[in-house]
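I am writing to request your help with a piece of structural work I have in hand. I set the record out below, with my sincere thanks for your time.
___
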Amino acid sequence: MLRRYPDAGEPLACEPLTKGLLNHGYRVSTTHGAYFLKHHLDKHHLGDATGDRATIVRQHRATQRLHSLGVPVAPPLTDTEGDTVTVIDGNCYALHPWVEGLHRGGAELTTAQSRRLGALLGAVHTGLEQVMGPGSGPPPRPGYGSPEPADTFELIDDLLAAARGLRPRDAFDELAVHRLVERRALLERHAHRKPPTPDGPATGWVHGDFHPLNLLYRGADPVAIVDWDRLGVQPRAEEAVRAAAIFFVRPAGELDLEKVRAYARAYRRAAGAGAAELAAAVHRVWWERLNDFWILRWRYRLHDRRADPQFPAVSALAVWWTREYEAVCEAFTG
């Protein structure tokens, strides 16, 4: 790999990184410094290295153009052939500069820093609108629906059977059973609040996975937004709401509404998004959370427990958000 980047120096060490749930990342030390080597996994699993490469190249070009606009990103290095993606034995790799920085959750951010976070995401969305021209990606999705309660009830029954059938059950399994029963009752009570299908397609370019593990800070300043694998066309305000629900959730499952309010106001100002757009996004993301059990699907269907630590706060948030719906909506729109 490094032979394609002669200016990178001779390799000294290659250390796997443990952060993140998808892809493989390595810190590569050379005689000229440190680099981040990314092995793209998720799209390669589709079995189409050519299409995979084209998708990754589009992501790389987007970050290069955003970098030219002053958005804090870490575009990949270009090899001797002018390429940013290397395919070896059907696997796609990219070499990036190493960015020194720390991940910071919302609890570590001041209100002023929360405001800056919202402005940053707004700059990402307006920047993507500027650099991603027509025909630069997949066609807009047609009107996209919301989860159907009947499907969720079926999923709840399957997950309940899996959790109850384990021997022995641990504290996580007991919490899972409690939350599943609780969520079924909530859905029965609020099924009539399913959001309507939007009239038109989604048209906004978004990062697609904006959360604390994909943002590096140096001191108080964000220095790099990383992991653009899910770059795509989605409702932009929904990404803003989803991000806030990850950054600003407290361990007990409540949102820090003071920080949410500062973040949302800055986002609306930077993105030119109106209160009605945010209100609709709050409703759709709330409903999405009410019907979502991805962590339990990983645990009980895929036997993958890497996301288990997130479950207590995530599952409590859906309950709290339902109870405090009006206050949450006001924080995003006020």
Observations:
- The first strand starts at residue 11 and ends at 16.
